[in-house]
Each structure stands twice: as C-alpha cells, then as structure tokens.
Design a protein that fits this description.
This protein has helices spanning 2-8, 12-17, 53-65, 70-74, 103-118, 139-152, 182-188, 209-232, 245-260, 262-266, 286-298, and strands spanning 86-92, 158-164, 169-174, 193-195, 206-208, 237-242, 274-278, 303-308, 320-321, 325-326, 332-336, 345-347, 370-371, 374-375. The protein has eleven helices and 14 strands.
C-alpha cells in the first residue's frame, strides 16, 4: 500500500526503493532438512556470441515505444515509434487490443498514457499542463486514470509482437512499468517467491510471483502470434526483449521456452534467437538464475542484460531479504559505464560485478529511463 501511494503521488523512485527491502511476503520455507545441505554451486553466465550494440540501440527504441498508448503503437505512429515496423500485435493480460471486449483496455491504457505524457509538467501534484487530448487536466484526472488502470488491469502488462523488416526480425517486446499504472505496481509488489515445478526439493527454483503470474496470462497468445509470423517469414530471426518489468517477463519466457523446447521450435528455420533485455530487476533465486544460465549454455545462447550507469531497478529485489527469499540475476551483464555517461557498453566478464558493485547511494531512477540516449520517461509519446 505504501508503494502504491508513492507511485500515485508521482514518486516512482520511492516506490521502487521499497523493493530493495520488501517485507516478508510469506514465501514458503524450504524443508528443515535442507539446512544441512551445502549451498548450490554458482553457475556463471557464459557469453557465446558477441554483443551487437547496433541491435541493442534499435531494441532500446522499440522498448521505449512500447510504453506509449495502444492507439499510437498499433499504427506505429507514436512519438517514439521510429524506424519501419510491420504487423504490430498487442497482447495484454486479459485481451488483445482491437478484439471484441477490449474497450476498457483502450480507455484505461490511453488514459494512463495521457497522464504519463503530462507528468513532465506536474509540480507537486498541483496541476497538469495541456496534454495531447483536448482540454486541460487536473490531479483528479490523474487519480481517475490510476483507478481505471487498477480496476481494469488490462493495461498493466503488455507484449508487443511485431516485424522489423530491415533487420529481418520478429520481435516480442514486453512493456515496462508506467508511473501512473497502479495495476502494474500491484504486480511489481506481489514479490513473494513461488517455486517452479520439478527439481530438488532442497534446491528448487523460485521466482517472483507477480511477474510469473503475469507471464502465464500472456504465454499462450504470445506463442500463437510468434508462430504465425515466423511461419509466414521463414529466415526471420526471433528477438526477445523487454524493459524493466518487461525484462522480467522476457526472462521468464526464455526460461520456460528453453525448458519445453518452444524456443528451439520457433527458431528452427532461422538463426538462433537474439535475447537482450534492459533495466531488468532480479527475477528469482540463485537456483533459478543458475539453472537458466546452464540451459542457455547448453543451447549455445547468450542472454544479454543491459544496465545503464546507476540504474536502481537492476538492484531489486534485495539479494537477501529475511523471510522473502534470495534473489540473483541470470544472463551476461552489459554495463553502460558511468564514466562514459552511458555511451560505452562494457560486457562484464566472469567474476566482474560491474553495476552490482556500484554504491547504493548512487542508484537512481533517472538512469532507468534513458538507455543509449533513448528516453522511456513519461513524455515523448
């Protein structure tokens, strides 16, 4: 409740910082006999392909656009919708925009986008300047948009499936959290860990409940959309990406589809998939991260995890929270270094902490909303 209040009051950084030390979320404990077991060996992520900065910059643009309203996204006409894109399909937790019964999604999502656009003019909650829609809006409008988003929920989680013809990509980009979207904040703060099916009872994988549930609501329709495009476009490369909470959903998708063979099936007629996320939080415990890194290595794949300077979000949830479980990243970290102002991408090798070693007092939200100079803040849609 405190986190939602902070987000609604226009202070997303305070809301996110609560995840650095989330409360005991009633995560089920391991069996007592597990206490005598030695800790699992940490599996290091392995880089099996070079980091493609040009591809990363293009995906940063697509992820920034995914934070805009559904109207501009469907026609790829939003202010951030640069470059040629085709066949855009938007998939949300409860419906697919444009299909029958999704009117509430359109209303809530576009209202939240309008609020985000106006946030650059917000001053201590007193007023909004004119937004893209006609007329003037006030704090009451902001509250109404938050209420719509929380009530309808449909706008809180979104995957954009699209074709990038110049690079011959079929992309799924999972949207990050918008400040005014109370539904997304509720998902973020549903941070108790839940176990994945299978494995050793003492060393089983646990993941963030809210993000895992959000992915489960999307998985069937995301797969159907990708299967259709990849079947029609043989030779196009599958690309999986996301920003912030979208990075978490992309990571869960990669883990599940490596395990059940879907990733191999979808990429059978093309080169291996490109897996690249931005500004991602920790998704699960060490067992989850180790298992994912090991699976990626077995399949000859690399998950690149791009982190900008002193971005706060990749340091949450806190690695060890009493009663809340442990948290660890998977994938190869690519750090946009502070000394370069985020202009230089450093691929962090084995044993290099990079962003993980940055002092906590330097962490901030400004670095979360600009990757490779592409803004994902409220304005610009």
């Amino acid at each position: 409740e405190n986190a939602l209040a902070s987000a609604s009051a226009g202070d997303p950084e305070a809301a996110w910082r609560l995840l650095l030390h989330p409360p005991d979320a009633n995560t089920p404990p391991l069996p007592e006999e597990c206490a005598a077991r030695p800790a699992a060996r940490d599996v290091q992520a392995t880089q099996l392909e070079p980091f493609n900065e040009s591809a990363a910059r293009r995906l940063a643009t697509i992820n920034a656009a995914a934070l805009c309203g559904v109207s501009g996204l469907r026609g790829w006409t939003c202010g951030r919708c640069g470059g040629q894109v085709q066949n855009v399909t938007l998939i949300t937790s409860r419906c697919t925009p444009g299909e029958h019964g999704c009117d509430r999604f359109w209303a809530a999502s576009d209202a939240v986008s309008a609020v985000e656009e106006a946030r650059q003019h917000w001053y201590f909650g007193k007023y909004f300047q004119k937004v893209t829609a006609p007329g003037w809006v006030s704090g009451k409008y902001y509250s109404e948009a938050v209420t719509k988003s929380a009530t309808h929920g449909d706008g809180s989680v979104l995957a954009a499936v699209l074709v990038e013809p110049e690079r011959r990509w079929v992309v799924v980009a999972f949207r990050g959290t918008r400040d005014a979207d109370a539904g997304a904040w509720m998902i973020n703060f549903d941070c108790k860990q839940e176990g994945l099916v299978g494995g050793d009872a003492c060393v089983h994988e646990r993941v963030h409940h809210g993000w895992h549930e959000a992915w489960r609501q999307l998985r069937r329709r995301v797969r159907a959309a990708l299967e259709s495009l990849l079947a029609a476009l043989p030779g196009y490369r599958l690309v999986i990406t996301g920003h912030s909470i979208g990075s978490a959903l992309a990571t869960l998708m990669i883990d599940e589809w490596l395990d059940d063979g879907t990733l191999h099936t979808l990429s059978a007629r093309s080169q291996p998939p490109l897996l690249l996320t931005f500004a991602g939080p920790r998704v699960g415990n060490a067992a989850f991260a180790d298992a994912l890194d090991a699976a990626l290595a077995r399949h000859g794949l690399t998950l690149f995890r791009v982190v900008n300077q002193f971005d706060l979000i990749p340091r949450i949830p806190n690695p060890s929270t009493p009663g809340g479980g442990e948290w660890q990243h998977a994938g190869v970290q690519v750090w946009l270094t502070p000394e370069s102002g985020g202009a230089v991408a450093k691929v962090c090798g084995l044993g290099e902490l990079c962003h993980e070693a940055a002092p906590s007092f330097r962490l901030n939200m400004q670095d979360h909303t600009s990757y490779f100079g592409v803004s994902s803040a409220g304005s610009g849609c």
